[in-house]
Design goal:
CATH class of the largest domain: Mainly Alpha
Organism: Calycina marina
Shape: elongated
Keywords: Isopeptide bond, Ubl conjugation
Helix content: 55-70%
CATH architecture of the largest domain: Up-down Bundle
GO molecular function: ubiquitin protein ligase binding
Family: Belongs to the cullin family.
Pfam family, one: Cullin_Nedd8
Largest sheet: 3 strands, mixed
Strand content: 5-15%
Structural class: mainly alpha
């Protein structure tokens, strides 16, 4: 038997299929070619006399090629032997076993050393930043062949790579860093990063060559890291943790961390010569990859904390707005730097916490200084207040701003309420203050409800503080504020949106918000009026003496309804609905009755006009057109009776209506209030006729000039005798006709005031571009006595309501303690006005005297 080895040594080349091997009887065997490691160059041609159809696959070891392949046992048969039944000719002679292309096993260790020598040469080239002489595909295939042999070879190959890399880092990389590095941490960082960048490129080539080792060994064996992780660990341990510069005790890793911290500090200080943004970002990435980022983080936070403390100390002398601006900018820069240079979110969190502590919490006394915050609010510095709120929110101490917030509101509001000289501007100034504060809450405090609640609480406190209104007079105890709010509402409802002060006009943000809610459109006057009425109503909600507001509001509403002075009936009814929703039906009952009276009066006049039309058909002369409003005395304010001598024709028409009304409503009596009358009079002037819209008293005076010639005159005494008006009313009436821009009468002598010695003539030469002219009556300012009378009436009504509440409660409970009764009375009367405990005690005593209740063993008992 003879074996033939025809396995060529170029197994490391690209896989090639073996051609079929032929089984035959050989008398001479071919000599085997000596084994040789491929270098990537073409080798000698192999024998092609093979018949096996199997290829040498990448995972097949050369020594396995003999197993069951290309082997045949044959017997040499003598020539001319017998043929078998299948036609085979049998031979005789010596029998031999011939094995063609027998592959003898190659020594594993020897083969491994040959492969390793080629791989080591490739590693040397990579270290020298050169391309390996052997192609990467060949190197990678050699690694694969070794890995497919035994597990021991894989482990040995992995160990040798590690040792080779370790030696390179220790003997080449560290000395190169030492030669390139300067004395400063930033220079050392730059040198380390340069070698790190080169090392990463080298590792990338190693991974490509040893990828099969990674897949077949490193990934599958526990406690063995992938090649890339091994190289990073080695760089960290050998270069960063153990590497040193000369005789310095600190490692390169320490210098790297210091260098990164120095770069950040140079950025903070604006040192462009030292700062390198690209190096900083790449260095932080290196720290992450090398797993020494946490070491950097702790030192970075320590340096940052020291910087924040020094910065805060340096900025302490600034004004509060400048300090807020400086802190806000610093925090924004620190936050942006963390994002720009890929610092961990945890680093950013710890960094900002230190910043908040040093700049905000430890300097909260400066940030929350009452005088400083007062200045920001007073000057309406919304941007600084927004930054202040933001800073305090970062440390979750924004609620501490409520103290300075309240401290500003109360004195500011108290000053407005107690200002006797500008009492007529009180409501407008309060609304301006509230609007400014509302805008600050909206723009600076992010609509924080805590500040809105504190604002309402503060307004309620100073608006109901009797000490603030004490300077306004005796009636202020019943809330002068309520009176002034009612007068402001009257101004708006009489004049509409044009009466809204420019300072209270809705701004763009408010309009946008209203439009989003579908409340109004921009530029809508009705909506503007409604928004300002709502603002006035907000002040009304703060006051306790709502009954004072009701008294003055009803008085002004009556004038608007009777004189036809309302700018909008829709606005009137809308306001009434708001009051009803706010205070309930009982509060607005009388006000609603006033509107109903107006509606009933219109129906009455329709019936009276029908009656007059029937009289006209009977041929009776109607005379002037009379309009009458019949009012309920219980719902409307009380008006004084003013004596006046009416023209005969007017008095006759009034008498006719009186008869007609009493005929339809038996048992009722009409009390005529001529001071509330108004009329339309036609006047003939030289330039044509005009229609004059006058008050009743103005009309009574003017018709007297019909009885004299054009050149005739009437003295003050003549007019007083003819009208019967008292001096105050007559002077006011004559002044409106002769002393304004629209002069229907001429006064002699000319002056602004009317005297008892003056005479008056008809101004026939009067000229005015419009046909219909409204002559405004000179409005008498309410006297102090009238105001006090109204407040006194409110006070009396409050006593009656308090007594009625006590009786209702005692009737239901039968027996109550003093404290329980007082609490219940306050609860039942608070919607109309807060009653002082002292007043409740007085009313309890009155009811005891009237024998509604009695005192018995510390309790009150109801007497049926």
């Amino acid at each position: 038997m003879q074996a033939t080895d025809n396995f060529a040594a170029n197994i490391a080349t690209s896989p090639q299929s073996f051609r079929k091997r032929k089984l035959s009887t050989l008398h001479e065997s071919q000599p085997a070619a000596p084994p040789k490691l491929s270098t990537g160059q073409p080798g000698p041609k192999r024998l092609k006399t093979v018949h096996s159809t199997e290829d040498l696959s990448p995972g097949r070891r050369p020594e396995d090629m003999n197993k069951g392949k290309g082997v045949m046992v044959s017997r040499s048969m003598a020539t001319g032997g017998l043929r078998g039944p299948m036609g085979f000719q049998s031979h005789s002679g010596v029998k031999r076993l011939v094995i063609q292309n027998l592959k003898t096993p190659r020594p594993t260790e020897k083969y491994y050393e040959e492969v390793w020598n080629g791989l080591e040469a490739a590693l040397t080239s990579i270290y020298n930043e050169e391309e390996p002489k052997i192609p990467r595909e060949v190197l990678s295939k050699n690694v694969e062949i070794i890995c497919r042999r035994t597990e021991a070879l894989k482990e040995k190959l992995s160990s040798r790579i590690n040792e080779r890399n370790k030696a390179y880092l220790q003997e080449d990389i560290v000395p190169q860093i030492e030669s390139l590095a300067g004395s400063s941490p930033v220079q050392i960082l730059r040198a380390v990063y340069a070698q790190w960048k080169k090392w990463i490129a080298q590792v990338t080539l190693m991974r490509a060559i040893f990828s099969f080792l990674d897949r077949s060994y490193h990934r599958k064996v526990q406690d063995v890291a992938m090649l890339e992780d091994q190289t990073i660990t080695q760089f960290r341990q050998i270069v960063l943790n153990l590497g040193r510069i000369g005789q310095k005790s600190e490692t390169l890793g320490c210098f790297v961390v210091k260098g990164v911290c120095d770069l950040i500090q140079s950025d903070r200080e604006g040192d462009d010569a030292l700062f390198d943004a690209i190096l900083l970002r790449d260095a932080i990435s290196m720290l992450h990859i090398c797993n020494i980022y946490r070491q950097f983080e702790s030192e970075f936070i320590e340096h940052a904390e020291e910087y924040f403390q020094n910065y805060a100390s340096d900025q302490t002398m600034l004004s509060i707005d400048k300090y807020i601006e400086a802190c806000d900018k610093l925090i924004d820069r620190e936050s942006s730097r963390c994002d720009a240079y890929n610092l961990d979110s945890s680093t950013k969190k710890h960094l900002l916490e230190r910043a908040y502590l040093a700049l905000i919490e430890q300097r909260s006394e400066k940030l929350l200084d009452t005088r400083g915050v007062d200045m920001l609010i007073k000057e309406n510095m919304s941007a600084s207040l927004q930054s202040l709120y933001k800073l305090l929110s970062l440390s979750k101490i924004q609620e501490k701003l409520l103290g300075p917030w309240e401290t500003y509101i109360k004195p500011s509001g108290s000053t407005i309420v107690s200002d006797r000289e500008r009492i007529n501007e009180m409501v407008v100034r309060l609304l301006e203050l509230k609007k400014k504060l509302d805008n600050i809450i909206r723009d600076a405090f992010g609509q924080d409800e805590r500040f809105t609640h504190k604002l309402r609480e503060s307004f309620g406190n100073f608006m109901n503080d009797s000490a603030n209104t004490a300077a306004l007079g005796k009636e202020a105890g019943n809330s002068k504020v309520g009176e002034m709010i009612a007068k402001y509402m009257d101004l708006l409802l009489r004049n509409g949106a044009k009466a809204v002060p420019r300072s209270l006009a809705t701004d763009t943000k408010d309009r946008d918000a209203a439009e989003k809610l579908g409340q109004s459109s921009t530029g809508d006057e009705d909506a503007e009026l409604d928004r300002n009425l709502e603002q006035g109503l907000e002040l009304f909600r703060f006051i306790e003496a709502k009954d004072v507001f009701e008294a003055f509001y009803k008085k002004d509403l009556a004038k608007r309804l009777l004189m036809g002075r309302s700018a909008s009936q829709d606005a009137e009814r809308n306001m009434l609905a708001k009051l009803k929703n706010e205070c309930g039906y009982a509060f607005t009952h009388n006000l609603e009755t006033m509107f109903k009276d107006q509606e009933l009066a219109k129906e009455e006049m329709v019936a009276y006009k029908s009656y007059q039309l029937n009289m006209l058909q009977e041929g009776k002369q109607l005379g002037l057109d009379l309009q009458v409003s019949v009012l309920s005395s219980t719902a409307w304010p009380l008006y004084p009776d003013v004596e006046v001598k009416l023209p005969v024709n007017v008095a006759r028409q009034i008498e006719k209506y009186d008869v007609h009304y009493k005929h339809n409503h038996s048992g009722r009596k009409l009390a005529w209030k001529h001071a509330l009358a108004h009329s339309i009079v036609k006047a003939q002037f030289n330039k044509g006729a005009k229609e004059l819209i006058l008050s009743g008293f103005q009309a009574v005076v003017l018709v007297l000039f019909n009885d004299i010639g054009v050149d005739g005159n009437l003295s003050y005494t003549d007019l007083q005798d003819a009208t019967g008006l008292v001096d105050a009313e007559l002077m006011r009436t004559l002044q409106s006709l002769a002393c304004t821009k629209i002069k229907i009468l001429n006064k002699h002598p000319k002056s602004r005031d009317v005297r008892l010695t003056d005479t008056f003539t008809f101004n026939a030469a009067f000229i005015y571009p419009k046909f219909r002219i409204k002559i405004n009556q000179i409005q008498l300012q309410e006297t102090k006595e009238e105001v006090e009378t109204t407040h006194e009436r409110v006070y009396q009504d409050r006593q009656y309501e308090t007594q009625a509440a006590i009786v209702r409660i005692m009737k239901a409970r039968k027996e109550m303690t003093h404290s329980g009764l007082v609490a219940e009375v306050i609860n039942q009367t608070k919607k109309r006005g807060e009653v002082e405990v002292g007043e409740i005690k007085k009313n309890i005593e009155k009811l005891i005297d009237k024998e509604y209740i009695e005192r018995e063993e510390g309790s009150y008992v109801y007497l049926a």
